[in-house]
Specification:
This protein is 39% helix and 14% strand. The chain is built from 16 helices and 13 strands. The chain is globular, with a radius of gyration of 21 Å.
Length: 416
Amino acid sequence: MNKFLGYQCSLCQEQYTTQDIIYTCPKDGGNLDVILDYVEIQKKCVPDDLLTSVEQSLWRYLSLLPVNDPGGMATPLRAAGHTPVFQPSRLSDQHGLHHLWIKDESRNPTASFKDRASAVVVARTREIGAQVVVTASTGNAGAALAGMAAAVGQPAVIFAPRTAPPAKVAQLLIFGAQVILVDGTYDEAFDLTILAAQEFGWYCRNTGYNPFTAEGKKTAAFEIWEWSRSQPQLSSQKIRLNIFVSVGDGNIISGIHKGFKDLLALEWLDTMPRIFGIQAEGSAAIANAFIAGTETIIPVSATTLADSISVDLPRDGVRAVRAARETGGSYILVRDHEILSAIADLGKIGIFAEPAGATSYAGLVKAVQQDLIQPDDPVLVINTGSGLKDVKAAMQAAGEAPIIEPTLEAVKRVIK
């Protein structure tokens, strides 16, 4: 099925063909939206084809993706996506919410949401015959690319700031990618990656730069749509799901928005969910634009312990603003101590989230406090990554364990 028609600039609406290996609009630098042939998809596919698929990964939605089947059966490439949704009753009771769910993306092969984008980008890399795929990353995107590339023997190069958490750097190395640590910020690593890709002819995966990253991330929206069809609380067209997601570069929230827009265009979705973007106060360029009522993204000097969403200049900021504005959602700012509290709260129900992953839940807590969310509003919070990615932050959230002498008396002194 020839479903991939080309690209369209999100700013000037200029269109480009499928033959162009381009990243952003040559005219104004705008992010490119992948154009799908919805009429052709409707002719060849109906929702039941997806809902009855035996594929237990994001590849069950292959008919809605702009790539062909990447192969790699029985490898981690085929395991990305299809993450679980939990219903934490204790957190619901704590915040007076009747319908709360958490989608746990830490269950992906390299333990973060970024596996979705990397799986699709690796598929595209192989289609166009690129010898090397490269990305800049604070850790998760790089680990995802390194893992997905390793699964099919695709050479990968990762540029990461030297301040990236050691656990994330270890993942990059163990997957066999060539890792280059940059003595600078993520944004400097990002720019260097583009220069290297141009110089050496590599295919660049950079988040918010390569159009196929959002196409991979939109598969989370497809999973939420599929899951919601089985939820009695969401059966009425008048009831809108509220989705909370952390935001750094803006590509996850824009990808999720794109997925729901695809479903609306196919007439498979009745009601667009409200999407809430959550940013750390110290890295709030997109939230600042949303609050100011503009699409002009002004860079900040990012300072937050949530390294995965610590970004000076978001590369997908305009589409990220639109994801909240066009769905009736909003942006919410949280402080680092609120993120640490969120890590601890999620841990108490069995979900180990890294700081960026817990940021979305911290945003929900604040939304309830500010009456943005009412008790009957159905809410889905997305945890984007595992706490094992950043053990230092986890220890800040949990505190230190006591050290005692090996006696029962010592146990009695410290036992809770």
